[in-house]
Amino acid sequence: MQTVADYPLNLYFGADDGLYVTLYAPSRVQTQVKDLAVVLTQETQYPIDDHVMLTVYPAREATFALHLRIPGWLQRPATIRVNGKVETASASAGTFYALRRRWKAGDRVELMLPQDFRTESIDDRNPDVVALMRGPVQYVALNIPAAEAHAKLPLPSNLKAAGPQAYTERYAGRDAVFVPLYRVENERYTSYFYRG
């Protein structure tokens, strides 16, 4: 529980050469980069969508680095734009991408983090029992009939979008709905699938 309570404290970290953005959530931070006052705002619905908008407000024009965390789960490259212009250097998954430039008030950084479906094994001894992930979020199947839920449910292979953060897959002649685990309330759900 303490980890969840500390999430807001871990959005940003200071460094000698600038500021690190480690988590993506709607927020505003007032900080110092060396002796310079800097305000950074973040607008996003991530992980509901892939888009993050950061706006930088230094007290005066100054050169420093904005380090953006590029998640290790990315299967396609992140896209970064500064004031509409695409950054040409690649932002490798599992690293921080350093935007070093002279910043002025109102400079905008757009970050696109494409979220694709992928799997994660539950442990090394059961590599074929997997959780279904989309970006950083685990997806589960809702209300699978008990007989099927206790059987080895195959990994979905033909998910179709059915709304924001909702997908469907055909199982035994009926549509199963897949949603993020955090959206489950009173429904029965299935968390793990078998990779065939």
Features:
196 residues; mainly beta; Immunoglobulin-like; eight-stranded antiparallel sheet; six-stranded antiparallel sheet; 18 strands; 5% helix; elongated
Produce the secondary structure layout:
Blueprint: H1 2-6, E1 12-15, E2 18-21, E3 27-33, E4 36-44, E5 51-58, E6 62-70, E7 79-82, E8 85-86, E9 95-103, E10 107-112, E11 117-121, E12 129-134, E13 137-142, H2 146-150, E14 160-163, E15 166-171, E16 174-180, E17 189-190, E18 192-194
Parallel strand pairs: 2-6
Antiparallel strand pairs: 1-2, 3-4, 4-5, 5-10, 6-9, 7-8, 7-10, 11-12, 12-13, 12-18, 13-16, 13-17, 14-15, 15-16
Walk me through this protein's architecture.
The chain has 196 residues and is mainly beta. It folds into two domains: 2-112, Sandwich (Immunoglobulin-like); 117-194, no CATH class. It is 5% helix and 52% strand. The chain has two helices and 18 strands. The strands form three sheets. Strands 11, 12, 13, 14, 15, 16, 17 and 18 form an eight-stranded antiparallel sheet that branches. The protein has a six-stranded antiparallel sheet with strand order 3-4-5-10-7-8, with no helix packed on it. Strands 1-2-6-9 form a four-stranded mixed sheet, with no helix packed on it. Strand 11 (117-121) and strand 12 form a beta hairpin. The radius of gyration is 20 Å and the shape is elongated. 18% of the residues are buried. The model has no long low-confidence stretch (mean pLDDT 90).
